Predict the 3D structure of the following.
Amino acid sequence: MIPMEHYLIVSSIMFFVGLYGFLSRKNLLAILISIELILNSVEINFSVFNRYLFPEHMEGMFFSLFGIAISAAETAVAIAIIINVYRVTQEIDVRHIDKMKY
């Protein structure tokens, strides 16, 4: 059986890579991918803590499935917004989103 620390290390690496990508990127798609990395690291934590703390219950797994469904809906809405931004500004750079106001 793989120790819990290994899962938590992978989850922490995913979280911080996602956080770095979110803070450093200017492309909207790269920011969206970074947010997805952060959400996936949280879902790994839900599953791992459920498996090791309460192996007979499935609440962590259900939270993970619910999180995956929310992530899919959030991605669909975000891509629709990004397509709208591209139609108006002809680029998907964060610095030019204020053009959407006019």
